[in-house]
Design goal:
Elements (H helix, E strand, L loop, with lengths): L1 E7 L13 E10 H14 L26 H17 L4 E8 H6 L6
Helix pairs in contact: 1-2
C-alpha cells in the first residue's frame, strides 16, 4: 500500500474564466512501510510552524500565516530541510502533470 498526497497549483478556474493557460498537479507517493519514519522526521522538521505549511508561505509579502513568525533565514532552512527529507529517501516518488485548462474542459469526463 502507498500513501499519496496530491495537490493542484491554486484553484481550478470556472470554464471560460481562466486567466492562466495551465494548471499544475503534483504528488508525493510514500510506501506505507516507510511512512512512520518519514512522518516522524517531518514532524520534527516542521515543529517551528504553527500549523499547516503551504508552499506559498515561503514567498515574500505573505499575510499572517503559520510560518510568518520565522525570519527569512529560518524559512529557507525549513524549506531546505523539507526538500532534503523528500529527496533523501529512494522510497519516495513524485508525480507531476501540467494540464491545459482549455483542453481539460473540452473532455467529456470533466464536469464543470
Amino acid at each position: 500500500m502507498y500513501f499519496l498526497f496530491l495537490d493542484e497549483s491554486g484553484t481550478p478556474p470556472k470554464p471560460n474564466k481562466a486567466t492562466d493557460k495551465y494548471l499544475v498537479i503534483g504528488g508525493v507517493i510514500i510506501p506505507a512501510g516507510a511512512w512512520h519514519s518519514i512522518a516522524k522526521e517531518y514532524k520534527s522538521i516542521v515543529a517551528p510552524a504553527r500549523g499547516e505549511i503551504k508552499w506559498k508561505y515561503f514567498g515574500t509579502g505573505n499575510k499572517e500565516n503559520t510560518i510568518s513568525h520565522l525570519s527569512r533565514i529560518e524559512k529557507d532552512r525549513l524549506r531546505m530541510a523539507i526538500f532534503n527529507l523528500l529527496i533523501s529517501r529512494k522510497a519516495i516518488k513524485f508525480i507531476c502533470c501540467v494540464t491545459s485548462i482549455e483542453a481539460a474542459y473540452r473532455m467529456p469526463t470533466i464536469i464543470n
